[in-house]
Amino acid sequence: MRSDIDDIVAEVFIIAWRKRELILPMPDQIIWLYATAKRVIANKVRWNGRIDRFHHAQAASIVESTDGESENATSLLVHSALRQMRAQDREVLLLVEWDGCTISQAAIILGISPSATGKRIAVARHAFTEKYQKLHL
Known about the structure:
Layout: H1 2-18, H2 20-23, H3 29-64, H4 68-84, H5 87-98, H6 103-110, H7 114-136
Helix pairs in contact: 1-3, 3-4, 4-7, 5-7, 6-7
């Protein structure tokens, strides 16, 4: 929990620093800062929710498995591969492959163009495949 708070505060101030030329002339900078913090927190909550749903679904599939050993091993490999990925690659991969978002929907959620999202998902799929194969061998 404490690390989440630290991450949120750091991200808010990184955004503020990057946009300082836009916000410095504004008389209500503190309102802008609160609005930015609210968006960062909402993104963090959504991300944590997706991760929780993913882990819960994976745990349920392990319990329901009829082929216990191989299903459990595969699930552990998938989780390990996902943990080793960069956060932005993991996020786009989970949005498209797990949540079932289209490239356009993922682009809106991520706040980037559809073409950038398409490139990011291609990179994420490649990274996941590499990491999974290394663990599988």
